[in-house]
Design brief:
Helix content is about 40%, strand content about 15%. By secondary structure, the chain is of the alpha/beta class. The strands form 2 sheets. It has an 8-stranded parallel barrel, surrounded by 8 helices. The chain has a two-stranded antiparallel sheet with strand order 6-7. The chain has helices at about 5, 35-40, 75-90, 120-130, 160-180, 195-205, 225-230, 250-265, 275-285, 295-310, 315-330, 340-345; strands spanning about 50-55, 65, 75, 95-100, 135-140, 155, 160, 185, 210-215, 265-270, 290-295, 330-335. The protein has one domain (about 45-345): Aldolase class I (TIM Barrel). The structure holds ligand PBG. Ligand PBG binds near residues 151, 187, 188 and 227.
Length: about 350
């Protein structure tokens, strides 16, 4: 029905009660009270949407704070088990552990990454033993393990070697699967790694291990605090622009996601989160696959810095920032706020 056809011929002013327009239509009616705002909410944040990234350290010290991420600590294996139990108690479906690897164990080829008994392997096994129902999502990437801080193998001329890196990533994925991980998350942005890891997992009898690919991962300044947490800011030579995506691009993200799906990714991720909500929305509406966003360390740091200063109200902005991911179409969010927000959701606010 066209609105203009309902206006009497020759009439210049629309009838006051004309349907589809003010004053008959008043958008504020549905916002007049809490009950109606709740009824009319289009998206909701639930504990089921949360993936909690945690940082691991080796040794006897239970907790070491992460600089620039107030409230986030690196935890040893025993403490990681307690964090995992906490996640289960809060109803968080999955955690994503990342290791701070002893600098003495880092080398040019990231050889520690493929060892079954490395920090990640021990943590994954211990967590699986304690809380088998908790999802474990673990990165395939070499940056915590390499002396040069890159996600892949570095040639003498400074190039990152794609295909040689994939071979190591497959071994890393198998070591993690052996330890009991539920899901491999390739975060390295090498071409073809999803298909190779899928084949390696299937070939070794790990057909049930999922792949959540960092499909559209941008070369971002927002990873700074994470790199402090895993100690790769100190080691990183140069930048990651030859493998991570140019922040200017969105069509390219569609191609990356299409390739990862074709190669067997079960779930895809966009990273960072808030500055890339347009990409999240495009991925979800184009492919309709399980789509995740990573609210990265720099996003956490920005919010926490402002909250600590009293410049922003954390009670308001944390849930608002997370809800934005749901509105954009994300099925879930990797967020360092996971335990905090899960606690609040449990308390009913
Ligand atoms: C490693 C990896 C990074 C993050 C997750 N996996 C950093 C990077 O690519 O340099 C970033 C997460 C964050 O900033 O919170 N491949």
């Amino acid at each position: 029905m066209s609105v203009s056809r309902r206006v009497p011929a020759g009439s210049q002013t629309p009838a006051p009660t004309q349907a589809g327009q003010y004053p008959a239509v008043r958008m504020r009616r549905n916002r007049k009270a809490d009950w109606t705002r709740r009824l009319n909410a289009e998206t909701r944040l639930s504990v089921d949407d949360l993936i909690w990234p945690i940082f691991l350290i080796d040794g006897q010290t239970a907790r070491v704070p992460v600089a620039h991420m107030p409230g986030v600590d690196r935890v040893n294996v025993a403490e990681a088990v307690r964090e995992a139990e906490r996640a289960v108690a809060l109803g968080i479906p999955a955690i994503a552990p990342f290791p701070y690897v002893d600098p003495g164990l880092r080398d040019a080829t990231g050889s520690e990454a493929v060892k079954a008994q490395n920090l990640m392997g021990r943590a994954v096994a211990a967590i699986k033993r304690a809380v088998p129902q908790l999802g474990l999502i673990t990165d395939a990437a070499l940056d915590p393990y390499t002396s040069h801080g890159h996600d892949g193998l570095l040639a003498d001329d400074g190039r990152i070697l794609n295909d040689a890196t994939i071979e190591v990533l497959c071994k890393q994925a198998l070591a993690l699967a052996e330890a009991g991980t539920d899901c491999i998350a390739p975060s390295d942005m090498m071409d073809g790694r999803v298909g190779a890891i899928r084949a390696a997992l299937d070939g070794a009898g790990f057909g049930d291990v999922q792949i959540m690919s960092y499909a559209a991962k941008y070369a971002s300044g927002f990873y700074g605090p994470f790199r402090d947490a895993i100690g790769s800011n100190a080691t990183l030579k140069g930048d990651k622009r030859t493998y991570q995506m140019n922040p200017a691009n969105s069509d390219e993200a569609m191609r990356e996601v299409a390739l990862d799906i074709a190669e067997g990714a079960d779930m895809v991720m966009v990273k960072p989160g808030m500055p890339y909500l347009d990409v999240v929305q495009r991925v979800k509406s184009t492919f309709g696959v399980p789509t995740y966003a990573y609210q990265v360390s720099g996003e956490y740091a920005m919010l926490m810095a402002a909250i600590k200063n009293g410049w922003l109200d954390g009670e308001r902005v944390i849930p608002e920032a997370l809800l934005a991911f749901k509105r954009a179409g994300a099925d879930g969010i990797l967020t360092y706020f996971a335990p905090e927000i899960a606690k609040r959701l449990k308390a009913g606010h």
